Every structure is written in C-alpha cells, then in structure tokens.
Amino acid sequence: MRELQNIKEGIHKLKRTVLVVDDELINRELLGMILQQKYDVVYAENGKNALDIVKTTPGKISLILLDLLMPELNGYEVLKTLQSDANLKKIPVIVLTSEKDAEVESLQLGAADFISKPYNMPEVIMARVQHSIELAEDSDIILATETDHLTRLYNKDFFFQYCAKSDLYTPGRDMDAIAVNISRFHLVNELCGRGFGDQVLCTVADEIKYFASQSEGLAGRSGDDLFFVYLPHRESHEKFLEGIDGAVAEIAGAARINLRMGVYQNVDHSVGLEERFDRAVIACNSLRKSASEHYALYDSKLHEKELFSEKLINEMDSALAQRQFKVVYQPKFNIKGKTPRLCSAEALVRWNHPELGMVSPGLFIPLFEESGLISRLDNYIWREVARQIKQWKDELGVTVPVSVNVSRVDLLSPDYEKNMIGLVRDNSLQPEDMLLEITESAYTENSERIIGIANSLRARGFKLEMDDFGSGYSSLNMLASLPIDALKLDMKFVRRICENAKDLRMIQLMIDIAAFLNVPVIAEGVETEEQYRLLKENGCDIIQGYYFSKPLPVEQFTEMIEKEGKKRC
C-alpha cells in the first residue's frame, strides 16, 4: 500500500491539462483565467472540436469542462461518444450547466460532476476540478494494480478481497471455488513461443471472465497458468470447461493444449478463502496423471489424502533425523556375455514410518517433489550411498558403482556440483563410483543450463545415465548433443514387449539410437524370462528387475556381492 501511495503522490505533483469546451468565448476565457494558475488549459468552441482534440492527443487531457448547449455537436452527444470508447471514457467530465433537469441525464451518460453557471465561485470550481481529476487517477492506479496486466483479471490478492466482500454482502449463499489450470503450459511456451502462450492465456481468461460475469461470479489469475473462479453453487461446471476448451481449440491449430478444472463445491465458509481455493487446486492436481479426465471435485477422499500428505510433509524433518528412510539396492546385471554378471546397483528409498509402517515411495516421492522437499531427501540418500560404497571398498576390497537419482531441482542448485565433488572426496571415492541418473524430461526443461551443468560434471569424471528414455520430448537432433553415458529405457516399454509388437519395435529403435551414440542400454522392470530373452537378443547391455532380484536391504546386497564377486561392466 505504501508503494501505491508513493505512485499517487508522484502523479499528483504533475501539471495536468484541462479542456474547456464552450461555444461562448467569454465563458472559455473566464474559466481559463480561473484554472491557468494550476493547470494547462486548452479550448474548444464546440463538441466536434473537443473530440478532435482528445482523439489527436491521447493521454494528454486530464479533465473536460463541457457545456451542454452548443452548435454542431452538443454536450450530450460528446458524452455519448466518450462513453463508447474504452480509452476516452476514462477522462472525467464536469458538465457546465445552469439547468438542474440536465443533471440526471448527464450522470446517466457518464458525467463526473457539475459546475453551475455563472462562474462566481472560483474556489469551488478549482476544488471540483481537482477532486474529479484525483478521483479518476486514483481509480486508474487501483485498476492497474488490482488486475493482471496481460489478462486483465484480478490478481490473487485483490481477487480474495472481492471474494470476501461477496461473502459479506450475500451471507449464507452456497458458493463454489474453481481452479482452472493449463497442463504442461511451460511446454506450450517452449514449443510454440511465448507470444502464442500469451494468446492462450488471454483466450482462457476471456472465457473465464465471460462465464463469471454471466454467473454473478468473480474471476482472477493466481499464477502463470492457474486461474480462480468464485461463483454461486451449481451441480456441475463441466459445460464451463467445455466452453474454455472450445475457445482454445479455435486458436490452437496443431498444438495440443489440455486444461484441468478442480471444483470445491458448497464451500465451508468457516474455512479461509485461500484454503477454499487450495482445495480446488488439490482437486485440479489430482488429474495430473490422467490423460482422459479433466474435471474433478474435491471430496472427503481428497480431504483425507490432503491430511495424509500434510502429515508426511510435516514429519519429513524428524524422519530424516531419526533415519527412518532406508536405502535399498536393486542389482544391475550385465548380460552381454554368456553369464549375467553383477556390475552395479540402483539406490532406491523406503520409508519405515513408526506409526504408518512402510510408506510407498509412490506416495511420498511425488509429494516431496511437488512441495520442493525432494532435494533434502536426495542429499540424504547420496550421503548414505557414498558412505556405503566406501564401506564395501574398505571391508570387501571391491568398488560397486551405484546409481542415484538427481532431479532437475538438484541440478539447478548453485551448490550441487561442489557438494557432489566434496561427497566423493570425503569418502575416498572416484566420481564414476556414483552414477547420476537424470530423467529425460529434466534435459528438455531449461535444457541449455542443464546441459552445461551435465557437461561440467562429466568433465570432472562423473557418469550420467538418462533415465526414463522414451518418455520425454527430446528430439533426435537434441539427443545427439546431450552429455550422457548410458540410456535407461522407460519401464512401460519393457513391460509390454512380449504382448505388443510396437513396444518391441520401440525398444529396438532406442537400442539402435544408443548404439549410434556409443553408449550402453539399461532396461529396468524386467520380470520374466521372455522379457529377458527378447532384450538380450536385441542387444540390451544391462538389466535390472525382479527377474534377477528385488531391491535388497544393504545386508542382503552385501551378501550378493560376496557371493557373486565383483566384475566390472
């Protein structure tokens, strides 16, 4: 608010221009003498001249003093013309009249105030002019700060203020909180350009704004690709979503743009406004993994899931301190020779919660990723793995390379490279002892910076594995320039290679790409003899999965190392 006040004070120090419109010369000169000490004054002898001036000097005129009875174009017609133009209607108009009957019609046409003839009270005229100008300028400043500059929807703060007023003026009315999100919007900007992305945002905003206005509701923009709507309850808002989809489809062309809508129906008015929309967002986010569903309601199940998620987030720090997270190791076997040979492992994490028991990684890992906590867990795993590799080296006389997951957030941390170098050095390891798994999607988001970091890591001796290859959006041209030392096939292709010829062909193509890049191929999720045979026949290098072994606690994996012996890949 202090910033807003500073803007107002700065603007109010500027000298404004007032347009006096009157067909009587003596009236124009008299008003000019009164105003000229504080304002620049320009004159027009009729309505036509006045409109020519305001149209040819956009933004210059701060106020119009307008006589009603004039030749060529009278004051009423000037008011109508000004009101029909979105920019000109912002100029405040004070009507000059001695007829009380004209006031009502002038007000209906947009007049801001009146000055009565004759002009025998200069201080009153100056006060009315100053008040009208300040009121109009304050209104413009508030409008500029309360709305998003691109979409002209309310920004988040003002949106919540107006929602609160709506509740105050209509107590007890059943309301729905709606969140609308554009799926993977960052890719729309990246693939189609920011100009097209802005066009999509404006199209969505226009549809939301129209729907809200037709439904006695309010609309706002909460983030880059997140919109809020607050309106009286109805059984379903799917038609609303269909309307937005239709408008976006008209401009999308070949681009594929999907929207999601989450609805918190019949909001609990004892819950704060932000929490109401948090619940709508939770319903919206529940659709992230669905390719076919785009509309979800917040219900008791989602509420229970929200409470469960909040519990896990809140207890992460204590879980780290109490070492509730356990690293398990899934063996990797080199299958290029006649006999598969243990060559390395992947570090996976399990949460042994004292109250909940074993919590699935499928629950807490996505949750930590969304809440920005994943780096803390990753760092914990890296330290455990480095310590364990050192222990095997000291006690068994062998070095077992272990793959660890590295997220995009990890890579973009300014201290990541320094920390990894320090971790390797402090445990007397070589950089290639810790294999860094980076998902394909991480390479394609903020790709230039990620590639630069990856190149620096490789220059220091680290080996990089592209995880989930085949699930992302990297082009062949981009793939040829990526710094990678192994390709790890996306698990979903492996699962279906025995039943689906297309998936088998995809595997063959990816193995061919790896051969062209001169890097080994790793297949995960291998569970059956037939999968193993097909992968071996088609040139796969390394396999992990239940066919050989489930992920093992450190004690059991140590026994496997001792039994198998160490054979480098």
Set out the fold topology.
Blueprint: H1 2-12, E1 17-21, H2 25-35, E2 40-44, H3 47-56, E3 61-67, H4 75-83, E4 93-97, H5 101-108, E5 113-116, H6 122-146, E6 154-155, H7 156-169, E7 175-182, H8 185-192, H9 194-214, E8 218-223, E9 226-232, H10 238-252, E10 259-264, H11 273-285, E11 295-297, H12 300-314, H13 316-321, E12 325-334, E13 341-353, E14 357-359, H14 361-371, H15 374-396, E15 402-405, H16 408-412, H17 416-426, E16 434-439, H18 440-444, H19 447-459, E17 464-469, H20 476-479, E18 486-489, H21 491-495, H22 501-517, E19 521-523, H23 529-537, E20 542-543, H24 554-564
Parallel strand pairs: 1-2, 1-3, 3-4, 4-5, 6-8, 10-11, 13-15, 15-16, 16-17, 17-18, 18-19, 19-20
Antiparallel strand pairs: 7-9, 7-10, 8-9, 12-13, 12-20, 13-14
